[in-house]
């Protein structure tokens, strides 16, 4: 029997049905499997195939369905008393998944915008991922322990890969706790401190919470400071080192995290859409927790290859003047609340009287304690006959008012259009002015740069000319030294002939000739400008305030509906 069949028999026992009840009734089998046991249509089809195989075996005398049911339930009850064996995927009730997801999101929110689960989607177990998961289990260190349901925030790209049943080898939702590994957390985990952005920003960008069945195996305990040192190594290097040391994962107790370095060591089970409210209502009492409007939490299984339900997105609210908003009367309500019958001042007292002068409903306590009397008050039944004509006149005037108010609405729209036009004109004007200023600044920068380069090149050329004269003199001295060497050597050796004497005297004539001194002028460098141009520019570019004048559209000074009473 498959793991799916074991899970089905467990849930079937809880639902109160027996396998014998489903015999020969495919419709009831599908109904119970989907509605009572919570399996996806694809899983139900697989279960029906296995059930039909069992029934065919029963007809051939191989096994009775009753025996299959009893054996299955008995085996399941034995497993429930001990740890769940590795490789058999656990079943989780929807309420459990929601509870654990909300607990994780509560811890993830911290003191920021509160997050909550909006929809839970159970993922199918693709055959390829399941086989890879069990293949990895076969090579883990014994005893392998239990499969744990752990949580991870995943990006839309990773979610798309998960829903398509791809391998988790190229997950892009890295975690700052250990970027080279795959980090997941228990529901008590402190994942917020390791997110690259604020959790609420990730939720609004489409990131979701994914629950994984993780084969933790033999786990090595490290501190946060120790595991951060692994960022200098690749995932493969970390896996090989960890495995050779006799471990399958790393646990970080301070944040309740588990780090694995093999993608086949985890398999996705549930996707939880995260709801992040745009606005939070702050209560009057600062000690109270802010109230957040949350959507109803739902649970939806998904077929293999299908995408999950639409993610919850906040409805955008357009800010502006709604056309004809005031001309749409509300639908009359036939329900009168009990609060409308009670006195606003004295709770629990029903109103019985009417003060025509103040147009106010009163109770008996108002009449007795607040200075009213029968002379200036009427019973409600009498007052309604007196006040109804006035109310009807007000209704007629109000209906006329709501029809005529369209002209005022048009004025508001014209005024808003005037603001938009002026804003556009000023922005265009500002753009042109700054365009000219930037052009002037660029021209000035080029001119000043040219001055610096030209002056510097002049001084540089002067130095080069002087250096050339010095080098020419040195070369002449070296040449005379060379010319005098041979005659002097012959003279010292006593070999004096006419040619040697002429050569020696010729060198002597050149040496004691009148040498021209090489003048080296002082050089200069550019150190500034003849005026403080940059401070002048900064002073001219100081911030200024926009000036305003009345708009072109003449709006009414006020809208006073008190005249409707006349």
TrEMBL record:
The record's region (Disordered) falls at 303-333
Q: Which residues form a coiled coil?
A: 405-480
Recorded hits in InterPro entries, A to Z, give: TRIM45/56/19-like
Q: Which UniProt keywords apply?
A: Coiled coil
Protein's organism: Trypanosoma cruzi marinkellei
Q: Can you say what this protein is called?
A: B box-type domain-containing protein
Alphabetical list of SUPFAM superfamilies matching this protein: B-box zinc-binding domain (SSF57845)
Which residue windows does the record flag with biased composition (Polar residues)? 324-333
């Amino acid at each position: 029997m498959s793991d799916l069949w074991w899970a089905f028999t467990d849930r079937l026992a809880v639902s109160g049905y027996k396998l014998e009840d489903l015999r020969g009734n495919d419709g009831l089998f599908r109904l119970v499997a989907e509605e009572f046991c919570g399996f996806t249509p694809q899983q139900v089809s697989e279960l029906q195939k296995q059930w039909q195989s069992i029934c065919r075996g029963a007809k051939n005398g191989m096994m009775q369905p009753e025996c299959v049911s009893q054996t299955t339930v008995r085996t399941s009850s034995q497993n429930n008393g001990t740890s769940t064996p590795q490789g058999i995927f656990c079943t989780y009730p929807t309420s459990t998944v929601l509870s654990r997801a909300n607990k994780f999101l509560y811890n993830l929110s911290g003191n920021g915008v509160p997050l909550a689960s909006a929809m839970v989607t159970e993922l199918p177990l693709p055959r390829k991922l399941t086989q890879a998961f069990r293949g990895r289990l076969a090579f883990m260190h014994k005893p392998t322990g239990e499969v744990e349901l752990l949580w991870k925030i995943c990006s839309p790209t990773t979610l798309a890969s998960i829903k398509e049943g791809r391998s988790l080898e190229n997950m892009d939702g890295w975690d700052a706790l250990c970027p080279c590994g795959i980090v997941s957390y228990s529901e008590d985990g402190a994942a917020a401190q390791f997110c690259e952005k604020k959790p609420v920003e990730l939720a609004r960008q489409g990131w979701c919470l994914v629950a994984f069945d993780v084969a933790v195996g033999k786990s090595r305990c490290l501190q946060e400071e120790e595991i951060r040192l692994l960022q200098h190594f690749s995932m493969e290097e970390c896996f090989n080192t960890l495995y050779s040391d006799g471990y399958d994962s790393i646990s970080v107790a301070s944040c309740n995290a588990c780090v694995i370095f093999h993608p086949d060591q985890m398999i996705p089970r549930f996707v939880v859409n995260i709801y992040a409210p745009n606005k939070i209502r702050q209560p009057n009492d600062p000690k109270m927790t802010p109230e957040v409007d949350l959507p109803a939490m739902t649970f939806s299984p998904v077929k293999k290859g299908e995408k999950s339900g639409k993610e919850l997105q906040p409805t955008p609210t357009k800010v502006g003047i709604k056309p004809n908003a005031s001309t749409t009367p509300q639908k009359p309500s036939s329900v009168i609340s009990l609060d409308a019958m009670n006195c606003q001042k004295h709770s629990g007292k029903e109103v019985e009287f009417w003060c025509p002068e103040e147009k106010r409903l009163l109770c008996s306590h108002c009449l007795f304690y607040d200075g009213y009397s029968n002379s200036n008050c009427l019973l409600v039944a009498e007052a309604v006959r007196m006040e109804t004509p006035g109310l009807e006149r007000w209704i007629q005037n109000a209906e006329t008012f709501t029809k005529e108010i369209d002209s005022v609405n048009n004025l508001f729209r014209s005024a808003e259009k005037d603001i938009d036009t002026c804003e556009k004109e000023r922005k265009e004007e500002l753009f042109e002015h700054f365009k000219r200023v930037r052009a002037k600044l660029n021209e000035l920068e080029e001119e000043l740069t040219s001055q610096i380069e030209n002056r510097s090149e002049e001084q540089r050329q002067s130095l080069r000319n002087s250096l050339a004269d010095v080098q020419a003199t040195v070369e002449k001295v070296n040449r005379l030294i060379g010319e005098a060497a041979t005659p002097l050597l012959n003279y010292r050796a006593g070999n004096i002939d006419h040619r040697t004497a002429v050569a020696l005297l010729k060198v002597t004539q050149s040496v004691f000739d009148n040498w021209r001194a090489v003048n080296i002028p002082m050089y200069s460098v550019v150190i500034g400008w003849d005026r403080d141009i940059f401070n002048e520019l900064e002073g001219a570019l100081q911030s200024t305030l926009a000036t305003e004048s009345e708009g072109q559209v003449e709006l009414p000074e006020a809208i006073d509906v008190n005249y409707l009473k006349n």
